[in-house]
Amino acid sequence: MRTICLNFTIHQPFRFRKVHFFDIGNDPYFYDDYTNELNIRKIATHSYLPTNDLLLKLIQKHNGKFKVSFSISGIVIDQFLLYAPEVIESFQRLANTGCVEFLAETYSHSLVSLSHKDNFKNQVKAHANIIEELFGHQPKSFKNTDLIYSNEIGATIAEMGFKSIITEGEMDFLQWKSPNYAYCNAINPRLKVLLRNPQLSDDIMLRFSNRSWNQWPLTADKYVHWLNQINHNEEVITLLMNYETFGTYHKKDSGIFKFLESFSEKIFTDSDYKFMTPTEIAEHIQPISAIDVSYPQLLTSDKDLSSLLKNELQQEAFDKLYALDKKIELCSDSRLLQDWLYLQASDHFYYMGNKFFSGKKDLTIKKPYESPYEAFINYMNILNDFTIRLNRFILTQTEMKKSKKTILI
Predict the structure, then answer these.
(1) CATH 1.10.3860.10 given to domain 2-291
(2) What percent of the chain is predicted at pLDDT more than 90?
């Protein structure tokens, strides 16, 4: 059984306004509402809404044989609810078809899997809950932020009852292995591990509009021909790309929407592939072996954590952020807890990275800062303001408890 596992990931961080040193402790609101709304409305108009409409059309046209999965961060869901509720409604229409799977991830699209196991599990549960609340679908499969994976992370996900996880298929641990199979976790083999095919995914996501690419223009005929050339024993082709591929990275006039429609047609008419979701693959396809990943790796050009946590700025911000874990456990203030979630988005660490400012064009991330240092200073000013408010809340709660005890005595 040869399968196409077609997955889309959707995430947008809450953008922060510029916060100066003398603003710390004076203005607790640090979101750039104008930019956030403008960004979400623009991408919704050009990407999310028209692509959802097209997917619904394809599902109906092919009588439920066309299937996809989505990984939608909790942060971008919160922005949809604020600025573009029609996007939520369009995903609900897709959910009602029964041909769309919604994956779990960290609520904040965060790096918490590299920090504290319990906090990681709590954030995954929070995300799974909002997915079920909005789309009536309790996630059974998982995709971590930027496909970060290790044996331990996979084992934790298995403990939580998930059936499969998607990670990157171009890493050192693969060695001679092909990404085009189902594998299993080295610690808990009940968890199936699906590997993103980087070449075929990036041919669409990154190269579709690149006229200097030696395969331009990419047509559905050519793409399905490539799929048909893959060894028949390699039975799982996992494609994963950012949803902004359609209409944002590649504009409508590039032909990207026509490509997606023709691609689905050609799979049914000119190949022996069928579409399956990650959970369906986990339930119906046996893994060929375990994947052994002893230390965390992720989706970057170097397949390591260097784009996130390599330089001193990133590491200091990460350490100070997650040093607040114990204090957060004492916090019941909803505003502070929301700020805590939004501060964890991995984007803020990318902005501090040297690779982010290397000059290499990256379709997937916009640059809101002029340098890693500027990104670091702004983030740390916000984090310091947050820490002051958190300490103040905990002190107030402690004093109130002492006061109640004194009254009782």
Answers:
(1) no
(2) 84
